[in-house]
Write a structure and sequence with these properties.
about 290 residues; 4-stranded antiparallel sheet; 4 strands
Length: about 290
């Protein structure tokens, strides 16, 4: 049976009911799909931390975040401190396994970025640019029956299905891993679907000029890179792409996201969680 052309996210897990989607893609353009994917991502980003927080001491990690923000006077200093051996040693107080340290460092990095207030692409910004209302979460009205978390993306040749039905042994780590996997599947699609309206090739060229041409970054490299995100030179380059203030704001946020990705920060990913789950299973068998 062929998969219907639609894009949707459904969750029904421990009281979390969410439905965001388009029942049909007829009449929807790529920007509509980008809006939807951004809205879905926004819906579950916080849930990822909620579920990881059942396994890892998020209060302790939050205290490290607060100390970094308090002690470091610059954004670059804070991001460099996240990667430092001192921070890794602090995380060793709550986790022993390397796989667990990788996850907690990923949590720490994303929490620091959030606290620093670096403006990233959000559904509200794109909705405002397009003059659209936010996409409604219809979970409480439509989600019933079997517990599961499900994502379907079938649009103009892109096919992605990720689904987990909740069973007796399913736990919060499994759901966090699935949500991270879903996020990774469509992060780049958001940019792809915005490319008809926004010149992503030009943005990629700008980001390439911003990033240092080296594989390892010192604090001064991060400082120099981040300072360029607020420079008049960057705004002049964006002005050549679009003179619309709202359009420039979107391009600036995309440039910030792509620059942060290029700095190779330790962000959360599904593979980290998968490795940790596997290691835990191996250790439980050996005891």
């Amino acid at each position: 049976m062929p998969i219907p052309e639609k894009v949707e996210f459904i969750s029904n897990y421990k009281g979390w009911k969410c439905y965001k989607g388009f029942d049909a893609t007829e009449g929807k353009d790529k920007l509509d799909i980008a809006r939807l994917l951004l809205s879905i991502r926004e819906s579950f980003n916080e849930k990822i931390f909620d579920y990881l927080g059942q396994e890892f001491n998020i209060k302790f990690i939050g205290e490290i975040v607060d100390s970094i923000i308090r002690d470091e006077k610059t954004i670059s200093g804070a991001l460099y401190k996240v990667k430092s051996p001192t921070t890794t040693k602090k995380l060793s107080e709550i986790v022993d396994l390397k796989e667990a340290k990788d996850i907690t460092k990923g949590m720490l990095t994303e929490m620091v970025l959030q606290k620093l207030g670096i403006e990233r692409l959000t559904p509200n910004v794109l909705d405002d640019y397009l003059g659209q209302k936010p996409i409604e979460d219809k979970g409480n009205e439509t989600v019933k029956g079997k517990e599961m978390v499900h994502f379907l993306g079938n649009y103009k040749g892109w096919k992605c299905v990720k689904r987990m039905e909740i069973e007796e042994l399913t736990d919060d780590l499994d759901i966090a891993m699935l949500l991270l996997s879903i996020r990774e599947s469509f992060n780049n699609k958001i940019y792809d679907y915005m490319s008809d309206k926004f010149d992503m090739n030009s943005i990629d060229g700008i980001v390439s000029d911003i990033l240092p041409s080296k594989s390892r970054f010192k604090e001064e490299d991060i400082a120099s890179t981040l300072s360029k995100l607020n420079s008049l030179e960057l705004m002049a380059k964006l002005e050549k792409i679009t003179s619309d203030p709202k359009g420039k704001d979107i391009l600036r946020r995309i440039a910030a996201e792509k620059t942060l990705a290029g700095l190779k920060l330790s962000l959360l990913n599904a593979k980290m969680v998968d490795k940790y789950i596997e290691k835990k299973a191996l250790l439980s068998k050996s005891t």
